[in-house]
Amino acid sequence: MNHNFRNYPVFSNDTHHEDVAPEEEVSVACDYFDGVFKYINQMLMEEDHLENKPCMFQDCSALQATEKSFHDVLVQNYPPPPYQNSAFLDQNADNLNSNLTGTCSSHGSNSSTAVNTSVESNWVRHQHLVGPFFGQSSLFDHHFQSDLQYCGSSSNYYNVVDGLLRSPVTPVHVFDSANESQFAWKNHLPEERSNKQLADYAEESDSEQTELYDKVLLCPSINPGLHDDQSAQKEARNESEPNGQAQGSKRGKDRWGCSKKQGNARELVDLRGLLTLCAQAVACFDSRTANELLKRIRQHCSSHGDGTERMAHYFSNALEARLAGTGTELYAAFAARRISAAEMLKAHRAYVTACPFQRMSNIFANKSIAKLAMGVTRLHIVDFGILYGFQWPCIMQGLSLRPGGPPKLRITGIDFPQTGFRPAERVEETGLRLANYCKRFNIPFEYNAIAKKWDTIQLDDIRIDRDEMLIVNCLYRLRNVLDETVLANNPRDAVLNLVRRMNPDMFMHGVAHGSYNGPYFGPRFREAQHHFSALFDMFDANMGRKDEDRLMFEREVFGREAMNVIACEVSERVERPETYKQWQARNRKAGFRQLPLDRDIMEEVRTKVKQHYHKDFVVGEDSNWMLQGWKGRVMYALSNWKPV
């Protein structure tokens, strides 16, 4: 590549937050993150075919369950439905189909490109389709006994079907996300066939794209003439302001997360308590009580309400599906529902605008890579869960400005296969996009795309060159890999062992911190309720309630995840987060040692969060993990590792 490259002076691209006085500002280095917003905007403007593409966040397990359901119909292998209530299903089918979630999971952002492709469609069909609750699996008795222990006296249920706090009911512990700041950092609970070919993308005119790519990628402070508009973050914040209502308003609920019914007679309804009671009834197979409680919950929840009401809306959908024994089928059905990539990119843009988690993760990961790779001439990044490539334009821009010129960059993009005859298509298209970025920045670039189940990847697929510096990156996607509670040959250990055999110079590991991966439904439901309450509360404080992108993200990401956690079991339950302490033990067992946190990077992250985001976003550290959270509750954790 012989493109001429111009050197630009480097300045900070930080803009002052309106709530922070200038004297409180701390100058921090440019992180090039505005390039991510421009990157997403450019994808939406340039690529009309995204409207006809399914979103890329689908997981292969949903595909497997869908294929298995079709197989069972063809061979007339119908599982017995001992717990189904046909009347209940008929009454609620429309509601379930209209409200349940799509096929996206967003908390990592990565990318891929097809220059050298090693693609394999190698998903495995399940041996059985889980029936109602737990189907006929061998784990049924184990779960059943635990859920019976979780059940209380049935008499309590019939006294609380009105769901009012004034009702004579047994006291229920109510989670208070608004006051969970006492949660201590160190004291926590342990598409079908495509109609467009890749050649179409490669035929784009370089001359027509020159200025556009500059605007997409280059930092505004480096090229102020190219960016006359305001910060993308501020624009999105202003657009999402509710009419006549300040952000974070708690009108419509009290401090305990209870819904206040508007009107002359105002009722105080404990939605979280009702959900807990309903989960108990579902666990005990008490369909009458569960239906009564669901009816009461639906009178006070809404997908357009406050955070608690929205959480209750999606949780009641999931409980309804579990009660009907259709959780797996409904969750898998949304894999076939074509949510366009353009819609999900808009929703993802809203998410990264309102919340600092992705930006801070990119800063932590990219600057750690940049410091380690300083002076190297060949850099190989293996990215597990590469998705659309949102992480890498930032580091490409930084590498292009390195004294002495950029290194030769090779990226191996790994992700789960997509449905249809071209399982690696989206991964490859993202790689072509990244290749064009490297061409603009005169960075020698090579790409290898892999689309297969992660635990089946072999070392030869990675094509390691020992003359390169090797970095392995995996941010927030290992939670979708099954663990030892499902398969004796633990897929998570298989992935970690593969990483260790690569012998990388650094393993960048980001985890979604959560305790709702237990085998027993009752405790898992409680932990999921705590976690999702914090997520919906965070959105309510930072995004407008009428924001359509917010609605899309909540439905297709939060709602889908809640459906999987609550209504699916065994191998169909793919949302399996663990705490960072659990991942720390796994990594050490796999033969990794933890690297200390970089103090300069940590200070930069803290400063940016303080200056540009809501005061309730928190950054902390524990045991060489960088922790990110909301109101004291840990949501994500990142750490650097190296094989022993």
From TrEMBL:
Where does the record place the region Leucine repeat I (LRI)? Answer: 269-329
What's the protein name?
Scarecrow-like protein 14
**Annotated stretches, region: Leucine repeat II (LRII):** 429-461
Quick one: where's region VHIID?
A: 348-413
SAW: where is this region?
A: 567-642
Give the UniProt family note: Belongs to the GRAS family.
| InterPro entries the UniProt entry points to | TF_GRAS
Listed A to Z, the keywords are: Transcription, Transcription regulation
Q: Where is this region: Disordered?
A: 227-259
Which residue ranges does the UniProt annotation give for the motif VHIID?
379-383
**Motif position, LXXLL motif:** 478-482
UniProt biased composition (Basic and acidic residues): 227-240
